[in-house]
């Protein structure tokens, strides 16, 4: 089936996210949206943005115009491998924005994700983020900033009294952080931070905590987050966005 | 069975017109829509019942030429449940607006104002889209719902069952390797000029 990738409207991306992505939300700010068509039919979008924080580049010594985030991969039923779609989308992004040096993305263990897609695409794994404290309201988890902007307070007591009886803090698992360097210098700079890919693991809801946070099963996190002595795919990577295809082929 | 009882287009003078035939019917003669995209809500249904009890019947319901209900399934059901039996049916081909005039009500009376709010509020609270039925209707190319739901609204309601529009490639609005020269506050319009890094 013929696959075509090209830039698409924000409306098309919003549709894809609402229809196909578990978050059902696109986020604000500047976005570059790449649509995917198979046999002429729209099947979804790969969406890049500036990310939630203006400091996204700081840990890498980059300014905001040199780094972006892959914020959503929202695809409905399709036949082409997702890793191929993402890789071509990255090429289009790079052609449009030659000043970019790095793409960052996150994988959320709260949803059982370890970043299999990024692993298939040959992105570099650089460990976990800090865990976040979110606020549960009416069964939904919201960022404290969203709550403060909506209700002008983050006070759990106030929220319990005025908004939802279930209001409470929920500590989330740290997210997996993947990066794709877009030039040799960036790749070299990141090399010391690269870790072995985490492996997929079934996590279960911890009913012993009020937050209901997920925990890995007995045996701890060693399987989920192996140290650098574990298996790694770094050796198959290249210095440009074509590399994911090479990497993918190596594992086919 | 609907029975012709009178012909009147002007409620003020009782004048006759062949276009608008007024008949009466038993409420039980009208049949609910078996593909109603509004599943309704218990609270909305209770509000309709309460409104009918307190203020009497307000806006009309709509039926097709066979007496099947197009709009007003909840009202019809609630009316039967509170013991109403008959309906005044105005036969029309859609070229004229059908106006229901309540001769016992003044809008500026407490009951008139409350009924005005109840009419809107019962619709609001009583709306709960049935995703299965709506998806089925949305997938039917002969039924054009495009003026009623944007693609994103359909996706919000139906998820991956939403009909996928024929989106075409478009030039991107932004680049991510450029910083905006200025940023405008959406609330007050103040603009910050930003130095390029």
What report would you give on this structure?
The complex is a heterodimer of chains A (252) and B (197). With 252 residues, chain A is an alpha+beta fold. Chain A is built from seven helices and twelve strands. In chain A, the strands form three sheets. Chain A has a seven-stranded mixed beta sheet with strand order 1-2-3-4-5-10-6, with helices on both faces. A three-stranded antiparallel beta sheet of chain A has the order 8-7-9. Chain A is globular. The two termini of chain A are 20 Å apart. Chain B has 197 residues and is α+β, with helices and mostly antiparallel strands. Chain B is built from five helices and seven strands. In chain B, strands 1-2-5 form a three-stranded antiparallel beta sheet, with no helix packed on it. A two-stranded antiparallel ribbon of chain B has the order 3-4. In chain B, strands 6-7 form a two-stranded antiparallel ribbon. In chain B, a hairpin with a 5-residue loop joins strand 3 and strand 4. In chain B, helix 1 packs across helix 2 and helix 1 runs antiparallel to helix 3. The radius of gyration of chain B is 24 Å and the shape is extended. Chain B starts with a strand and ends with a strand. About 7% of the residues of chain B have low confidence. Chains A and B meet through strand 1, helix 1, strand 2 and strand 3 of A and helix 5 of B.
Could you provide a short overview of the structure?
Chain A is an alpha+beta fold and 252 residues long. Chain A is built from seven helices and twelve strands.
Strand order of the biggest β-sheet of chain B: 1-2-5
How do the strands of the widest beta sheet of chain A line up side by side?
1-2-3-4-5-10-6
Weakly predicted, low-confidence segments of chain B:
5-18
CA-CA gap between termini of chain A: 20 Å
User: What is the alpha-carbon Rg of chain A in Å?
Assistant: 19 Å
How many strand elements of chain A?
A: 12
Q: Could you spell the SSE succession of chain B in H and E letters?
A: EEHEEHEHHHEE
Q: Major beta sheet of chain A, specifics?
A: 7 strands, mixed
Mean pLDDT of chain A: 81
* Quaternary structure annotation: heterodimer
Radius of gyration of chain B: 24 Å
Strand content of chain A: 25-35%
Strand percentage of chain B lies at 5-15%
Which range best describes the helical content of chain B: under 10%, 10-25%, 25-40%, 40-55%, 55-70% or over 70%? 25-40%
Average residue pLDDT of chain B = 87
Q: How many helix segments of chain B?
A: 5
| Terminal CA distance of chain B | 79 Å
Determine the structural class of chain A based on helices, strands and strand pairing: alpha+beta
């Amino acid at each position: 089936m013929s696959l075509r990738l090209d830039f698409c409207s924000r409306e098309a991306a919003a549709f894809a996210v609402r229809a196909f992505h578990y978050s059902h939300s696109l986020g604000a700010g500047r976005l570059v949206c790449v649509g995917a068509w198979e046999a002429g039919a729209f099947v979804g979008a790969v969406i890049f943005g500036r990310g939630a924080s203006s400091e996204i580049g700081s840990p890498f010594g980059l300014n905001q115009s040199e780094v972006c985030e892959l914020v959503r991969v929202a695809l409905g039923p399709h036949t082409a491998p997702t890793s191929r779609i993402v890789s071509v989308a990255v090429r289009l992004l790079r052609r449009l924005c030659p000043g970019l040096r790095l793409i960052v993305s996150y994988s959320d263990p709260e949803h059982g994700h370890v970043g299999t897609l990024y692993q298939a695409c040959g992105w570099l794994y650089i460990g976990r983020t800090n865990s976040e404290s979110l606020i549960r309201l009416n069964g939904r988890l919201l960022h404290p900033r969203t709550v403060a902007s909506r209700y002008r307070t983050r006070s759990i007591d106030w929220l319990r009294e005025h908004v939802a009886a279930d209001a409470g803090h929920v500590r989330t698992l740290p997210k997996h952080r993947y990066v794709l360097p877009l030039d040799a210098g960036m790749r070299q700079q990141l090399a010391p931070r690269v870790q072995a890919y985490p492996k997929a693991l079934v996590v279960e809801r911890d009913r012993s905590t009020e937050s209901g946070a997920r925990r890995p099963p007995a045996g701890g996190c060693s399987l989920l987050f192996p140290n650098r002595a574990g298996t790694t795919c770094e050796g198959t990577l290249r210095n440009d966005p074509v590399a994911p295809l090479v990497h993918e082929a190596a594992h086919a | 069975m609907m029975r012709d009882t009178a012909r009147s287009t002007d409620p003020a003078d009782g004048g006759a017109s062949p276009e608008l035939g007024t008949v009466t019917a038993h409420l039980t003669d009208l049949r609910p829509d078996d593909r109603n995209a509004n599943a309704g809500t218990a609270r909305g249904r209770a509000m309709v019942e309460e409104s009918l009890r307190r203020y009497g019947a307000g806006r009309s319901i709509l039926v097709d030429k066979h007496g099947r209900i197009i709009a007003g399934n909840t009202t019809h059901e609630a009316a039967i449940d509170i013991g109403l039996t008959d309906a005044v049916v105005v036969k029309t081909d859609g070229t004229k607006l059908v106006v229901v005039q309540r001769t016992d009500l003044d809008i500026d009376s407490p009951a008139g104002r409350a009924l005005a709010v109840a009419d809107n509020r019962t619709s609001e609270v009583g709306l709960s889209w049935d995703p299965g039925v709506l998806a089925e209707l949305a997938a039917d190319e002969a039924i054009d719902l495009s003026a009623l739901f944007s693609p994103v609204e359909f996706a919000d309601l139906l998820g991956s069952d939403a009909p996928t529009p024929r989106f075409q490639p478009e030039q991107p609005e932004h680049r991510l390797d450029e910083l905006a020269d200025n940023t405008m506050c959406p609330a007050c319009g103040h603009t910050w000029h930003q130095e390029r890094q």
